[in-house]
Design a protein that fits this description.
240 residues; 8 helices; 5 strands; globular
């Protein structure tokens, strides 16, 4: 879904919220389980995706031709919920109930309760394999236009399931698969050449950008990658 953004950062597509409103929307979520730094490190990437890249809206959230976005980094969903509210997938009135017993907005997103959520997530290491399966399933159904996006944290790449997914997706030619890695230097293990090199060794296109720079993120998200899955490593200082 591509929208226009006004000079003051307010969305001009008619839903009334822009990037400048996200801090206030996140402030409506209360409680001790917000994982604030982990959540806010995803904010810019999530906004650019939903505001300018993903072809999905509340009206098309169940359409077969929609793009799919899978939040693997679901243990810190505060920014995700704020973006979904800003884009009209969930009511803003739901935000203050975050984590409450009767709230649809749990500490981990539940796809059965949160409109627009494609998976239930939060356990590390599941999102990228699920995205691979989603891309394979769409291809098997002849749906070659929808893009599949998954957002993971750098520490998730310590999980072996992700290495298997990376190793499979390149040779399988899953060129509709896109992975956004939020690199906030929280991983236990280093990788020779950095995170991008790990994807490239698996037959992916990969680029590393400043995870707070919206124009750099947009350029990386929309870069051509014919025949290859694509990874965007978004470096973020969680203190910023």
């Amino acid at each position: 879904m591509t929208t226009a953004t006004g000079a003051e950062g307010r969305d001009t597509a008619g839903d009334g919220y822009g990037f400048g409103d996200l801090d206030r929307l996140m402030g409506l979520l209360t409680g001790d389980e917000k994982h604030g730094p982990a959540a806010t490190s995803t904010l810019d990437a999530l906004w650019v995706l939903y505001d300018r890249v993903l072809r999905v809206s509340p009206a098309t959230a169940d359409a077969p031709e929609r793009d799919r976005f899978l939040l693997s980094k679901g243990h810190g969903p505060m920014a995700y919920y704020a973006v979904l509210a800003a884009k009209g997938f969930v009511p803003v009135e739901w935000l203050p109930g975050f984590g409450a017993y009767d709230s649809p907005l749990g500490h981990h997103p539940d796809r059965m309760l949160v409109p627009g959520a494609e998976i239930g997530s939060g356990s590390l290491g599941h999102g990228l394999p699920l995205a691979v399966g989603t891309a394979l399933g769409l291809r098997a159904r002849g749906l070659t236009d929808p893009a599949v996006w998954v957002l993971v944290g750098d520490a998730e790449l310590d999980e072996g399931s992700n290495h298997e997914a990376i190793a499979f997706a390149g040779p399988a030619g899953l060129d509709r698969l896109h992975t956004v890695v939020i690199d906030n230097a929280s991983a236990r293990y280093g990788r020779p050449g950095g995170i991008a090199a790990r994807f490239e060794a698996g037959g992916w296109s990969a680029v590393t950008v400043d995870g707070r720079d919206h124009e750099a993120l947009y350029a990386a998200f929309t870069a051509p990658h014919p025949g290859l899955p694509h990874a965007v490593i978004a470096r973020v200082d969680p203190r910023s």
